[in-house]
Amino acid sequence: MATQGAKEMPGRAEKGKGGIVLYSPQYFAACTLGGIIACGPTHTSVTPLDLVKCRRQVDPNIYSSNLQAWRSIYAKEGIRGVFFGWSPTFVGYSFQGAGKYGFYEIFKNLYGERLFPNTNKTLVYLGASASAEFLADIALCPFEAVKVRMQTTLPPYANNLREGWSKITQKEGVAGLYKGLQPLWGRQIPYTMVKFATFETTVMQIYKFLGKPKESYNAFQQTGVSFLGGYIAGIGCAVISHPADVMVSKLNADRQPGESAGKAMSRIYGNIGFAGLWNGLPVRIAMIGE
Q1: Does 13 have pLDDT greater than 50?
Q2: What is the mean pLDDT of residues 83-112?
Q3: Which of 2, 13, 189, 258 has the least C-beta neighbours within 10 A?
Q4: Can the peptide bond before residue 183 be classed as cis, meaning omega within 30 degrees of 0?
Q5: pTM of the model
Q6: Which positions ≥6 away from 39 have C-beta within 8 Å?
């Protein structure tokens, strides 16, 4: 979040670090690029965790543990198998990051400075993050659908992004790429709202605990505090959004043709129960550093 703590009004041509004018086209472009860099490569780097998480969410008995899962996959398929699904992950979360961070700053400016200038900042953060994530998930959903099918079907539904995209659209049309959109919104929007709204407070509390103002620390130390604050905030977000994360995996792997999202979720819940909604949570918490 590039402007956390900023107090400037958009019409005052204030400059941030690097000489970029706050809320200018260059500023929004920089935030969008930052979102791509923050989300695409980082999500891709934890593909091995995501692969095992998704498979165990769909079939809790497939592996006895995460370590056993990676050993089994590596023995059969090598490093390519451990990172299976990296391409839709990279493309999808790059688009999602662009939308999440780019639109967040746009909506924060729109809601907090133009439409409702006297509104509580936390409400602005919540509204802006929800609006941004709503749009970002529309871009992410097709790639998430391909990724989940690739990772959760054995033998694999497809061997790469292009093959998976082609098979889904040929059999189910474009709608097949979006059948997990509703639970994706249910997973990502609350997650992003809570994380964006609580990040600043968490960082402030860390500095308060350390006993010195932010300015007394160097850039490396401040980055460490920001990372820790984001991770702490993310743990709560993961818990809040995890049941929807399970449903995203289940729906993409097990939704019947013509079945409504509501009916499918009801059927899946009947099969896995309340406890099943929390399957894979420890792994997802480990992934929160993305």
Answers
A1: no
A2: 96
A3: 258
A4: no
A5: 0.77
A6: 93, 94, 96, 97, 98, 100, 101, 290
